[in-house]
Structure formats: structure tokens, C-alpha cells
């Protein structure tokens, strides 16, 4: 009896991981607006459709330039959407909700669940705003963000 039951549990875990994998997006950070936690060249895994909470780092479509993705910290939710802010308000070229207002919830693609780095920084560990992170290589990001 143990064999089929264990296989059922393992098969369920594989299906759950496969379902999660389909909901992950890879995005590359560009610009200095999220320093010091996120640096240009960092790659992010984003859980598409995940509801953010205040304090989460999210990826959203720029409300004025829908083809552009932005990486910001969710401040609070209002009737108009999410207030998204840069961690580095002094970054040159920084644009966030202080400039364009709340971002409609439909434009928030998902919540950042992991960060990974290019091979040039592999083998390093840091403790930052997102906790302990280690370099892993999962392939090139599918999309790139801007400030």
C-alpha cells in the first residue's frame, strides 16, 4: 500500500511544482531606483497573479507606458489601485506613484518571490531587504524592467 500512496503524494508535488512554474515570470532589473536591495543586472522571479501585500516588491506595467515593466515596493492599496514606490527616491530618472499616482491593480503583474544573479556574481551570499539570497542560474530573464 505504501508504494501507490507515496507515488500519489510525489505525483501531486510534481504537478503542484509544474503549475507554479507556469506562473513564474523572469524579469531583469535595470536602473538604480530599487537600490540598495536590488541592483541593475539582478534577475527576479515573479509569481504572476500573486496578490501583493504592503511592503512586497512587485512588477507592474508602467501606467503611462504599458510596454514597460517597473519593479517597485507596494506601499498601500487604495480605491484607485496600488501606491508603488522606489526604495531609492534619489535615483536619477526614478518614476513611481509620486509621479503618476496609484497603479491600477490590473497592471500589477505579480509579486517578486526570488532574486537571482548573473554568473559574474555567482557564489555570493548577501543579507538584504529580501532576506538571505544566493546566486542561482535558471536562465536568462524573459523581460527587462526599467526604473
3D structure, described in words:
Residues 1-18 and 124-142 have low confidence and may be disordered. The chain has a six-stranded mixed barrel. Strands 7-8 form a two-stranded antiparallel sheet. Helix content is 17%, strand content 35%. It starts with a helix and ends with a strand. β3 and β4 form a beta hairpin. The protein is α+β, with helices and mostly antiparallel strands. It has helices at residues 2-22, 97-100, and strands at 24-28, 43-48, 57-61, 69-78, 81-85, 108-116, 125-128, 131-134, 143-146. The protein is built from two helices and nine strands, in the order αβββββαββββ.
What keywords describe this structure?
single chain; alpha+beta; two-stranded antiparallel sheet; 2 helices; 35% strand; disordered N terminus
**Largest sheet, spatial ordering of strands:** 1-2-6-3-4-9
Largest sheet entry:
6 strands, mixed, barrel
- The number of helices is 2
Radius of gyration: 17 Å
Cα shape: globular
Q: Termini distance?
A: 56 Å
